[in-house]
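Lecture 7 notes: from sequence to structure.
We start with the chain below.
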Amino acid sequence: MAGLKGMFKRFSSECETHDTHADKELETRYYKASFDKVYDQVKKYFSGEGYEISSESKDHGEIMINRTKKPSMFIIATVVSTRPIHTALDLKISTDQTIVGGAYPKLKEEVLACYQAMSKELRESDR
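Predicted structure tokens for the same chain:
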């Protein structure tokens, strides 16, 4: 039964991170940095080629991004200060394109690429 569930997940059109994710790679990442530093770093990462920030709300800690390169994706980055100099980053990525072999692996790849880039610039922390 688990194999069948995994096969269907492969064709899911969205991927989301959260604290208690079954997939450890998709758990929320925490950084030893201020809210502003993490927020600015996320904006910097998604200001690169192939991305377009469609809207942002610093008050709510959300940045909405359109990935313009193929396959196109819609990304919501949520930055939350959990305590002083301790900030969480969650991502929700979705696509409306059909991808041969399933969209989920590409969406997960995008999440992991963002987390990897953030970890190069910011120091990770435990919860």
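Points to note: The domain at 2-125 is CATH 3.30.310.80 (TATA-Binding Protein). The two ends are 32 Å apart (CA to CA).
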